[in-house]
Amino acid sequence: MAVMSRRRRPRISPARTLAAGAAALGVLTLTACGSDSGTAGDGGADGALEVTASFYPMEFLAERIGGEHVSVTTLTKPGVEPHDLDLSPKETARLTEADVVVYLKGLQPAVDEAIAQSGVQHIVEATSFTSLEAHGTDEDHAHDDEHDEHADDDHDHDHADDGHGHDHGAEDPHIWLDPVKYAEVAQGVGTALAEADPDNAAAYEANTEALIAELTTLDEEFTAGLAETETRTFITTHAAFGYLAERYGLHEEAIAGIDPESEPSAARLRELHEVAEQDNVSTVFFETLASDATARTLADDLGLKTGVLDPLEGITDRSAGADYLEVMRANLAALRDALGAS
Questions:
Q1: Quick one: pLDDT at residue 163?
Q2: Secondary structure of the chain in the HEC alphabet?
Q3: What integer pLDDT is reported at residue 269 of this predicted model?
Q4: CB-CB neighbours of 34 under 10 Å
Q5: What is the pTM of this model?
């Protein structure tokens, strides 16, 4: 399905990212180690490589690719909204003991600062393995009435300005919600672990290939599952699903912007009323880790259903699955229901 966007690049299959892995490693940050804690790769007492992940999507990659050869800890505990994370002095000090740190720059300022000062030798920064784009909302622009054309059978949308007159500004860090981009990051993480622990490089390579194959399958499921729908527009609590929407020819309208804690203006809420009516929206989605109050109020005002679309920033007992793949498939089911997929 064609996706019209000034930013659109050719669709890249996760399998093709394997060949780019070696080149991506050049972006891996290797900082001189300023401590006497040992050489990266020596690992902890049990010989495992000590890996610290910034939050769940990075933790999932480290665990799946590292397997039995790594011991993974995460800076963001389950149930904590990662955008708001603060690190205690003890947690910051513990970070310096890691052999490898896997994080995503720009999502958690406290983590960015702590890692920059950590002296850890192997620092793996997720966005260096893929490209970032600008998504979000700009409330200074009014809804574009020309979006009436959403009823076209081919469902084409312009995702750079949305056809809603939004000038997206901030770079969007939510790359893990696009399985293709997440596979690119997986390749980079696998290469980095092999660099840090060459004795187990073959295992990391095999685990990376297996995970990319699973992400390829997930991408194919989303492509097929969202190919034919009654509407292409969905409303979410915050603008986390821009990459996913662009990948599969959908259109995300967020109540808040990239920051889930930002409050929408009255003008933004009025605009969402127009979007819901024009685009035949059936559902307002909220999240597991952020307040659902505004989403439920908007849905009540519009007479719409509510549902959960999980940005996968953490796994809790309220999540619709035990890991990334399960929750993403639950997201696919929720989108198919909300969009009227056939």
A1: 36
A2: CCCECCCCCCCCCHHHHHHHHHHHHHHCEECCCCCCCCCCCCCCCCCCEEEEECCHHHHHHHHHHHHHHEEEEECCCCCCCHHHCCCCHHHHHHHCCCCEEEECCCCCHHHHHHHHCCCCCEEEEHHHHCCCCECCCCCCCCCCHHHHHHHCCCCCCECCCCCCCCCCCCECCCHHHCHHHHHHHHHHHHHHHHHHCHHHHHHHHHHHHHHHHHHHHHHHHHHHHCCCCCCCEEEECCCCCHHHHHHCCCEEEECCCCCCCCCCCHHHHHHHHHHHHHCCCCEEEECCCCCCHHHHHHHHHHCCEEEECCCCCCCCCCCCCCCHHHHHHHHHHHHHHHHCCC
A3: 83
A4: 12
A5: 0.77
Please give the pLDDT value at position 136: 63
Q: What is the pLDDT of residue 24?
A: 39
**Pseudo-torsion of CA 218, 220, 223, 227, nearest 10°?**
-120
Chain-centre distance for alpha carbon 186: 13
